[in-house]
Design a protein that fits this description.
Blueprint (H helix, E strand, L loop, with lengths): L1 E5 L5 H14 L7 H4 L4 H13 L3 E8 L2 E10 L8 E8 L8 H15 L4 E7 L3 H9 L3 E12 L2 E11 L8
Parallel strand pairs: 4-5
Antiparallel strand pairs: 1-2, 2-3, 3-4, 5-7, 6-7
Helix pairs in contact: 1-3
Keywords: Acyltransferase, Transferase
Organism: Chitinimonas viridis
InterPro entries: Acyl_CoA_acyltransferase (IPR016181), Bact_Acetyltransf (IPR050832), GNAT_dom (IPR000182)
Length: 174
């Protein structure tokens, strides 16, 4: 059974191992295993605490049968003008893909964002990551632009798409 909950300090060890495994098998995540290897559970716990203290940040974990299956973060802007625009980062472990984990994470994050007063969600995806792009399109995101030669992947530069989803259609109150 799938269970979602905000990241807690006590989840730090599990997340540390999960994310190390994720980036070792999914090279479409931004950090490399070498860049991540120095992270500690205490640093992860501190990150979870910082997210929990902010009303425009979410760090949500997905658990499947007691195993960490995925995560999604929403980080709103720090200024008044971009506070309700949330940037998303997400990942699902290889063993849990195509089982509805990502869809559940995106639905929960959007529900939280709407309740928190966000007017927009956005993310980036490597242009060649077709599976992720299709997931984001199915979640209602649209490709809004292309950052040409934005990243170096597998010793070659690749494009990155900016995708967004507008949550509110009416103008915001002044």
């Amino acid at each position: 059974m799938l269970a979602l909950h905000p990241a807690r300090v006590e989840d730090a060890e599990a997340y540390l191992a999960f994310f190390a495994g994720l980036i070792a098998t999914a090279d479409t995540m931004l950090p490399t295993p070498q860049e991540y290897q120095s992270r500690t559970a205490a640093e992860i716990a501190s990150t979870f605490s910082r997210f929990a203290e902010q009303d425009n940040q979410l760090f949500l974990l997905a658990w499947q049968d007691g195993q960490l299956a995925g995560f999604i973060t929403v980080t709103g802007g720090m200024a008044r003008k971009n506070r309700g625009c949330g940037h998303i980062v997400a990942g699902v472990g290889a063993a849990f893909r195509r089982q509805g984990v990502a869809r559940a994470l995106f639905a929960a994050a959007e529900d939280w964002a709407r309740k928190a007063g966000f007017w927009r969600l956005e993310l980036t995806v490597m242009a060649h990551n077709e599976a992720a792009r299709q997931l984001y399109l199915a979640a209602g995101f649209t490709v809004e632009g292309c950052k040409r030669a934005a990243l170096c992947w597998d010793d070659r530069v690749v494009d990155e798409f900016l995708m967004g989803k507008v949550l509110l259609q009416a103008p915001l109150p002044a």
